Amino acid sequence: MSETPPPVVPLPPAGPCRRPSIAPYCERVRAKLSPERFAHVMRVAELAEAIALANGFDAGEKRATCLAAVLHDVAREESDARLLELAPPENDLEREHPMAVHGRAGRRLAEAWGIVDERVLDAIEGHVFGPRPGDRIGMAVYVADVSEPGRGFNGDVRDLAMHHLERAFRRAVETKVRYLTSRGKRVHPRTLQVHDELTHPS
Ligand SMILES: [Fe+2]
């Protein structure tokens, strides 16, 4: 006798997706991504919200952080052709690796969905190469993306972000540059610029 499989119960909205003003974006993002990627996005959004809380963000900054975290990978599963259409390449690295433009392409999609808050748009764009140092919302999203528990690494960055967001951001960028360099991989010029600004602040 075959057993009847249990009914599929949709997961209740987690973290920031409980906010009525953000929930519709969670559903739109869910429709564009694989379940695995969407689960990553939910972990990033929960962690970004926790980082915002721990670092004393005001209510507006918290909401912007949550919304940017929910939207950060909205373009991550677009085709190469669509990515380059949304965000024309600005250098050889982007031409050869269209996935590199998914932050800028995500910004375009968010704009098309009516997002006008520059803090949110900058954080979506900045999550790939790093936001401007000092952009707290961008740093919270960047750090949450690289250190969410599902990654299985950067736990030290995650812990540090609960006390010193800027230090956590610096460590995350340094770790990334060191990792890519040690494997002989090119580092995007924008990441190098952020790295330089962090290590030699003017
Ligand atoms: Fe991500």
Q: Order of helices and strands, N to C?
A: HHHHHHHHHHH
Report how far apart the termini are.
Answer: 73 Å
CATH class: Mainly Alpha
Category from helices, strands and their pairing: mainly alpha
Q: Architecture, according to CATH?
A: Orthogonal Bundle
Q: Report the bound ligands by name, code or SMILES.
A: fe (ii) ion
Based on CA atoms alone, the radius of gyration comes out at 17 Å
Oligomer: single chain
**Share of β-strand residues:** under 5%
Largest β-sheet summary: none
CATH topology: Hypothetical protein af1432
Tally of discrete structural domains:
1
Quick check: average pLDDT? 93
Unreliable stretches covering 5 or more consecutive residues? none
Question: Can you offer a commentary on this structure?
Answer:
The chain has 202 residues and is mainly alpha-helical. It has a single domain, classed as Hypothetical protein af1432 (Orthogonal Bundle), CATH 1.10.3210.10. It contains eleven helices and no strands. The chain is globular. The relative contact order is 0.11. The model has no long low-confidence stretch (mean pLDDT 93).
Summarize the structure.
The chain is mostly helical.
